Amino acid sequence: MSTMEFAGKKLVVVGGTSGMGYATAERVVKGGGEVVIVGRDTQKTAAAVDALSQHGSVEGISADLSDPEAVTRLREELTTEHADTTLLVNSAGVFAPQKFLDHTESDYDRYLGLNRATYFITQTIVTNMIAAGNGGSIVNIGSMWAHQAIAATPSSAYSMAKAGLHSLTQHLSMELAAHRIRVNAVAPAVVRTPIYEGFIPKDEVDAAITGFDSFHPIGRVGTPDDIATVVAVLLSESAGWVTGAIWNADGGVMAGRN
Q1: At what angle do helices 156-176 and 105-132 cross, to 10 degrees?
Q2: CB burial class (10 A; 0-12, 13-18, 19+) of residue 227?
Q3: 120 assigned to some structural domain
């Protein structure tokens, strides 16, 4: 990939204030692209925009994806202000392992609501891409947990949601190919991101994640940059003949048992 691979492109990254989304935004803006970060927390969104703006053009939008009215407002803003979007990364996520029998309806609805928001935000951006007629590329952040269950992290509702996102990826790749819009997904295993702070005390997260090193045949957990590298390739014309793919970026976990 060239240093200006994304010149003339605009990326919307949903869930771009930290982790894999932030790392992807950084790669695209350093590659000459414009970036729009969508984040739930206003302060975190502003901080991410401030940090990334040193590399190029970055804007931020705050929206709570669990609030349907906020999603509607976001969709309207994406059309009025960013109809020239050519790249989309759906990176927003929650992960809270819970035994199947302990799941509540609100636990389940949190995952379902995020999928709903992702679905319709994507629909809005795709509508604008088609109207512009310039093609585009979409990458969804799926999960290894959509492929297989892990006893240490019971996550039936999360896995259902991510499996649905994998399926959406394949369906959209078929429907949108004629419009020169490619749609792919990346399925990570354990990656060192703040998502684990949702169910592990912050001062214990690092040690807990490190405990999964040996779970991965490569011998370590992933980093946001590991995933962003793969996402950037899929977004770029370097992967111009790739669509409908679910790429495992998991340190070898899906290759077998370690």
Answers
A1: 20
A2: buried
A3: yes
How buried is residue 21: exposed, middle or buried, by Cβ count under 10 Å (0-12/13-18/19+)? buried
In terms of Cα–Cα distance, which of 118, 76, 242 is closest to 170?
A: 242
Would residue 1 count as lying in a domain?
A: no
Q: What residues make up the domain containing 120?
A: 10-255
Active-site residues: which are they? 158
Question: Rounded distance, CA 64 to CA 87, Å?
Answer: 21
* pLDDT of amino acid 1: 54
Radius of gyration of the chain (CA): 17
- Tell me the pLDDT tens digit for each residue of 202-249: 666 677 778 888 888 899 999 999 999 999 999 999 999 999 999 999
- Is residue 144 domain-resident? yes
Q: Is residue 23 part of a domain?
A: yes
Which CA distances in Å does 251 have to 165, 190, 220? 21, 9, 7
The helix/strand/coil state of 142 is coil
Helix (H) or strand (E) holding 60: strand 58-62
CATH number of the domain to which 110 belongs:
3.40.50.720
Tally of domains within the chain: 1
Handedness of CA 1, 10, 116, 183 (dihedral sign): negative
103-107: long-range contacts, CB 8 A cutoff, minimum separation 24 = 103/156, 103/157, 107/157
Alpha-carbon distance 169 to 184, whole Å?
A: 6
Tally helices (H) and strands (E) across the chain.
Answer: 7, 7
What are the per-10-residue average pLDDT scores of the chain (258 residues)? 84 96 97 97 96 97 97 98 98 90 94 96 98 97 94 92 98 98 96 69 73 86 95 97 97 87
